[in-house]
Design a protein that fits this description.
heterodimer; A: 786 residues; alpha+beta; 5-stranded antiparallel sheet; 18 helices; 24% helix; 24% strand; elongated; B: 487 residues; mainly beta; 5-stranded mixed sheet; 43% strand; globular; WD40_repeat_CS (chain B)
Chain lengths: 786, 487
């Protein structure tokens, strides 16, 4: 009944669809009977859909017939038929016909047979559009309770889409043949009223989603629902909870049914189980299986695991008391000021309290302030108890428990006791005169033996003589236009005023014009210089084999230079870098480091004789000097300084300063000490009596040391000149007592020379009496320091 | 004058005024006074000048407390010296000083090695007596170019000495002095001492004529001192000898022939002079020093006594009648200059010796050799090469140094030596520093170059006309010299 109602309701809305249906079927008779239920109708035309309600609707078929007819009448009346309607119907009919042509699975032959049989045939013959025959089969009417699944459902083939999509159409979908499934007619108000009065059994008022038909429940279903509502079992079962029949009981019968002994497995522990358990046990032991713990407990355990405490003195063994053992220090006993009621004098004053509070906790002498309480019971708890204990533990932990045998020596006391520089005055401290005039570097300086004149030689090839104190240039001569003057040295005696200078391969001996050169002195100097010419002309130098070039050629330099006072020129084989006079002034040695065999030469002024003392020299000669007192001759090669006896003509000593490249050396006027400067920045003091190795090595310069020089006038001073533009002045006292060591104290660093193309100070010389020194700088100046 | 003192709030200090000036004595009753504690030199000076006190008008005064000048307020002085305000201060008042302001520069062609002044008050002016015409002040400068120049006070060259080939010096002149207004002497690096006759045609031209060549020294003659009254010269030479010469041709002995320029070298021949001048030798040549002698001075009282300084660290007292060394004062540094400061009480003078160690040592030639150094004047930064005493008093000096300054010293202002200065004796510091005007540029005073390069001062002389100094900057610089040091 429910389905019918919906059917009618739908008819009201979509009557055209129904007529369409009718046309399409072409079976006017029996239509009504079939259309008792529109569902059935659809089922007939559609092949796929299964409807649950099928059986129910079929059941109610017979009873509803009359009403159905009426319904149809009503519906046809209601529909205002029009032309469109019929047109549509025509179209649809045609379509239907076409569709029917293509109906598959029909064999024509049996169809003919059926024609013959007429009634027994289950098809009709119709004309198709082409006028050909076509067979139209009736709907197969499966018998009731047929198992034919095809019949089951009126199939709406719109797919799985909501029915609401068809709300605006008269149909609700298509059957398997493509025909529209018309919307079931819905009843009008009156009908619904009628329906409401007589509610058919199984009516739920719900609509089947798939079909749009009313969803009615069958009797069985209703019964089921009722039972569920009643709280009964849905199935009608006799006894849902029957008593258990204990077929096998745990009770041991006195008289068992079977006399068979209990099987062994009943009382023997199961090996398999034991195996399984052991497996688990092993896993637990190995930690592969952890016993369950709540997560928070597990977390806590993990946290605890991280903090590990060790007892530091856990394994400490009691030691026998020995002086090296120090027991842990004890806390001092409490004093008066720790008392809860200390005497008044222990209480801090206001200022003390403020001072204590102002101090940093680390700086405080004691970490509490004495406080007075009337009674012990008024004393509050000790607030910093935990902190104090902790600090005590820290003290014990950090305190060294073993006495270290540390040498308790002040490192300063290990240093040799050097007098302070201020006690060692006088020594030069500041620049007092600057001698400016050379064009280019000043290569060499020398103060004359009387201490009034300064001679300089420079890159401009000139030799200049200056008034020492004022810095006034008093004399100048240009020795060479292209070669620098490498060295200038005064003849060391006062009986003449002779200056030796070397420019290139030439050595010049000159008598500069100077205030202290009286006519007599001038004459004496000239006599000394020219005395040798007689020797030369007398043929005293004939030792040389004929044809062999003499090592030095003595000559007059020419009138131009002679007018200036340059009287003798000695030409040697290679450029001379060093000149050093013998103390008596008759000999001087020259060194030309590139001169191979003839690098060292000794010149005799009185004989105008040049000799090469070494036929072979181990290394490149750097510089050479005469001993200030004894007939010894020192020659420095790059690594060593050799000392030769000039009388016995033998090697006396080899001094090895250990420097890589010796630049200069000087012999102490006492004769027993030697200072060596090296290009590897070192200044070395040698005690010749002591050892061949340096007594003291000083490395205070940042660059190579160019020149070292002792003070020759009795002051315990020496100085070095370096490429870093500084001079360093040392106090170097050589004691008279042979057992004592020399005292060497650096006293002053003299700065002032500019470093020009990595050259600083090139030469130094001391004043013969005063603590004054003169330096030659690459910056074109010579400076007097005093 | 008393009102401001009464009105002045704050404390008052009791002061006692004293003075050594005879013409400025206060009456006994007025010497003690209460003055405000914050009073300064100017206020004190005004008090002294007021009618109720000295009634002198406007003489500026300076005040000495315990030997040092008052440069702050009295209160500050008391605080600085840790004295209470109740202290009775003794203020010695002296006439105030005027800074030695720069006046002029005389340009030269070469370094100026020596300066001397001829004026009414100068020794030469006094020696010339009536022959010196008042107002004809002359300045003599010696230069490294070997020439002597005579200037008038306004800076015009009146005459220049002839060159070496015409009887002049053949090398740089190192010292020159007026003997009288018509005679002067010079010495130099040609080892000679020359005596010149100076005649003036008019105020703008004159003539220098060599009258005597004195030979004897074997080294550069670096210092010359003259006594115009006896016409004696005293020289110090780099050969360590002290020469005592006569400027009169008649009284001078013959020269040593070996020292005369003879003609055996071509160079000498070339330099032979066209003018023949009498050549004489020394009265005494005293080789008393082992190192270059740098200065020799007459005793200002007794012209038969001389003092010489040398680089051998000694000052020697010489008896010029016998040529013997009387006493030797040893110091610890090479000495480069010497000046005899006469003492007020008479007797032997105080010697100021400039050292190469940048200070001036005051020596008392009477004292034993053990404690000769009376005082040290510290402040120079380079060698002290010339010292001159004030013409007006016996306690002020001017010194010239290679550091490019002249410094004026007041020997009364002393303090005990500090530890780093040796800790012994007393020390004084300069009152004024005279910089070289040539160093000053438009941008103001430049930093003095290292080593005194280009600004060394070689000679200084102090006359009433002013302080004349010559130096490496080729100038004679004139600074006012009146009232520079308190009387």
């Amino acid at each position: 009944m429910g389905s019918k109602l919906t059917d009618k309701k739908r008819k009201q809305v979509e009557s055209d669809s129904e007529s369409d249906n009718e046309l399409a079927n072409g079976l006017f008779d029996g239509v009504l009977s079939q259309s008792e239920s529109d569902d059935d109708d659809y089922i007939a035309s559609g092949d796929e859909d299964e409807d649950v309600d099928d059986s129910g609707s079929e059941d109610s078929e017979g009873t509803d017939d009359d009403e159905d007819e009426n319904d149809d009448g009503f519906s046809s009346d209601e529909i205002p038929s029009d032309v469109e309607h019929e047109d549509e119907m025509d179209k649809l009919a045609k379509k239907q016909e076409e569709l029917e042509i293509t109906e598959p699975g029909v064999d024509p032959k049996p169809r003919k047979k059926a024609e013959e049989e007429e009634e027994g045939r289950n098809y009709r013959i119709e004309k198709d559009a082409n006028g050909g025959e076509r067979y139209v089969y009736d709907e197969i009417d499966p018998v009731y309770d047929s198992d034919d699944t095809d019949f089951n459902e009126p199939a709406n083939t719109i797919g799985n889409i909501p029915l609401s999509f068809y709300d605006s159409y008269p149909h609700i979908g298509y059957d398997i043949n493509g025909k529209k499934i018309m919307r079931p007619a819905t009843g009008d108000a009156l009908q619904s009223l009628l329906d409401s009065i007589e509610v058919p059994e199984g009516w739920t008022g719900l609509t089947d989603i798939n079909t749009g038909n009313p969803l009615n429940l069958t009797k069985e279903e209703l019964e089921l629902v009722r039972r569920v509502q009643m709280g009964l079992l849905p199935e009608d079962v006799e006894d849902p909870y029957p008593d258990t029949v204990e077929w096998f009981t745990s009770v041991e019968e006195k008289m068992p049914l079977s006399a068979a002994p209990e099987p062994k497995r009943r009382f023997v522990p199961s090996k398999n189980e034991a195996k399984q358990i052991m497996k688990l046990v092993r896993a637990i032991r190995e930690g592969r299986i952890l016993p369950y713990k709540p997560p928070e407990e597990r977390e806590k355990e993990l946290e605890e695991q991280e903090e590990q405490y060790f007892d530091l003195w856990q394994n400490e063994e009691p030691r026998a008391p020995n002086p090296m053992h120090i027991p842990a220090p004890k806390l001092p006993p409490p004093g008066y000021d720790l008392s809860y009621n200390p005497p008044e004098e222990y209480l801090p004053t206001k200022e003390e309290r403020e001072a204590w509070e102002k101090e940093d906790p680390e700086d405080r002498e004691k970490d509490y302030l004495p406080t007075k309480y009337d009674a012990l019971r008024k004393v509050p708890a000790w607030g910093s108890f935990v902190k104090e204990r902790f600090e005590r533990c820290m003290d014990l932990y950090l305190a060294p428990r073993v006495r270290k045998n540390r040498l308790n020596i002040d490192p300063n006391s290990l240093l040799p006791k050097l007098p302070s520089p201020s006690e060692l005055k006088p020594f030069p401290t500041v620049v007092q005169t600057i001698f400016r005039g050379h064009d280019g570097r000043v290569r060499s300086v020398a103060i004359d033996p009387t201490g009034v004149a300064l001679a300089t030689g420079g890159d401009d090839g000139t030799v200049r003589v200056w008034e020492l104190l004022t810095g006034r240039q008093v004399w100048s001569v240009k020795l060479s236009s292209d070669e620098p003057v490498n060295t200038v040295r005064w003849r060391p005696t006062k009986d003449a005023f002779i200056l030796a200078a070397a420019a290139g391969e030439d050595i010049f001996l000159m008598v500069p014009t100077h205030a202290s050169v009286t006519p007599a002195l001038d004459q004496a100097s000239r006599d000394i210089l020219s005395a040798g010419f007689g020797y030369a002309t007398n043929g005293q130098q004939q030792q040389l084999a004929p044809g062999k070039e003499p090592p030095g050629k003595w000559s007059r330099p020419g009138t131009k230079l002679e007018d200036e006072g340059v009287l003798i020129k000695i030409t040697v084989r290679s450029a001379v870098k060093v000149i050093n006079w013998h103390r008596r002034g008759d000999h001087f040695c020259t060194v030309s480091p590139r001169g191979q065999r003839s690098s060292v030469a000794i010149h005799t002024l009185s004989k105008h004789l040049t000799q090469i003392p070494f036929r072979k020299l181990a290394g490149l000669a750097q510089t050479a000097a005469f001993h200030p007192l004894r007939p010894l001759f020192f020659v420095a090669t790059q690594r060593t300084i050799r000392c030769y006896d000039l009388q016995k003509l033998e090697l006396v000593k080899i001094v090895q300063p250990g420097a890589k490249w010796i630049s200069s050396f000087d012999i102490h006027p006492g004769g027993d000490n030697l200072i060596v400067g090296s290009y590897d920045k070192r200044l070395l003091w040698h005690d010749l009596d002591l050892s061949n190795r340096p007594y003291k090595t000083m490395r205070f310069h940042g660059e190579a040391i160019r020149q070292v020089r002792y003070h020759k006038g009795g002051l315990p001073l020496f100085a070095d000149a370096s490429d870093d533009g500084t001079l360093q002045i040392f106090h170097g006292k050589v004691p008279n007592d042979q057992l004592e060591n020399p005292t060497i104290v650096p006293v002053k660093m003299l700065k002032g020379h500019k470093v020009v193309s990595k050259l600083g100070v090139l030469d130094i010389d001391w004043h013969p009496r005063e603590p004054w020194c003169v330096s030659a700088g690459a910056d074109g100046t010579a400076r007097l320091w005093m | 004058m008393d009102e401001p003192m009464v009105d002045a709030p704050g404390q008052q200090v009791k002061v006692t005024f004293t003075t050594t000036e005879t013409d400025l004595q206060l009456p006994e009753t007025k010497r003690q006074l209460l003055v405000p504690a914050d009073i300064r030199r100017y206020g004190l000076s005004r008090i002294l000048n007021s009618e109720s006190m000295l009634d002198t008008g406007s003489i500026p005064f300076d005040f000495l407390i315990n030997g040092s000048f008052l440069r702050t307020s009295l209160q500050d002085y008391l605080v600085a010296n840790g004295l209470s305000l109740e202290t009775n201060l003794t203020l010695q008042y002296v006439r105030s000083l005027i800074p030695p302001v720069y006046e002029a520069s005389f340009e030269h062609d070469d370094w100026v090695s020596a300066v001397d002044v001829l004026s009414a008050a100068s020794p030469a002016g006094r020696w010339s007596g009536d022959s010196f015409q008042h107002g004809h002040d002359r300045i003599l400068s010696a230069s490294y170019d070997g020439l002597l120049r005579i200037w008038n006070a306004s800076g015009q060259v009146i005459t220049t000495s002839p060159s070496g080939s015409h009887g002049g010096h053949t090398a740089s002149v190192k010292a020159a002095k007026f003997l009288t207004s018509s005679q002067l002497a010079s010495a130099g690096m040609d080892r000679t001492v020359r005596v010149w006759k100076y005649t003036e045609a008019d105020a703008f031209s004159g003539e220098l004529k060599p009258t005597l060549e004195l030979y004897g020294h074997a080294g550069s003659v670096d210092s010359l001192e003259v006594d115009g009254a006896s016409r004696r010269l005293l020289t110090a030479s780099a050969d360590g000898a002290i020469g005592f010469w006569s400027a009169a041709k008649a009284s001078a002995p013959e020269a040593d022939a070996s020292l005369l320029p003879n003609a055996h070298t071509s160079k000498r021949r070339r330099l032979a002079t066209s003018v023949t001048v009498a050549q004489r030798g020394p009265l005494f040549l005293m080789p008393v020093h082992t190192a270059p002698a740098t200065a020799a001075v007459f005793d200002p009282r007794d012209r038969t006594v001389a003092y010489s300084a040398s680089q051998d660290h000694t000052v020697r007292t010489l008896d010029l009648t016998t040529g013997a060394v009387v006493s030797t004062l040893a110091t610890s540094h090479p000495l480069l200059s010497l000046c005899a400061v006469p003492r007020a009480g008479g007797g032997s003078p105080l010697l100021a010796a400039g050292t190469s160690a940048r200070h001036i040592t005051m020596l008392d030639p009477r004292a034993s050799t053990a404690a000769t150094s009376v005082m040290t004047l510290r402040g120079h930064a380079n060698k002290v090469v010339s010292i001159a005493a004030s013409p007006d008093n016996d306690y002020s000096l001017v010194s010239a140094s290679h550091d490019g300054t002249c410094r004026i010293w007041d020997l009364r202002s002393v303090r005990p030596a500090a530890k780093d200065e040796g800790g012994m004796g007393s020390v004084s510091e300069p009152v004024y520093v005279i910089e070289r005007e040539s160093l000053k540029t438009d941008k103001g005073a430049k930093k003095r170059p290292a080593g005194g390069e280009g600004c060394k001062v070689f000679s200084v002389v102090w006359d009433r006309l002013g302080i004349f100094s010559g130096g490496e900057d080729k100038k004679v610089q004139v600074n006012s010299g009146r009232n520079v040091v308190a009387d």
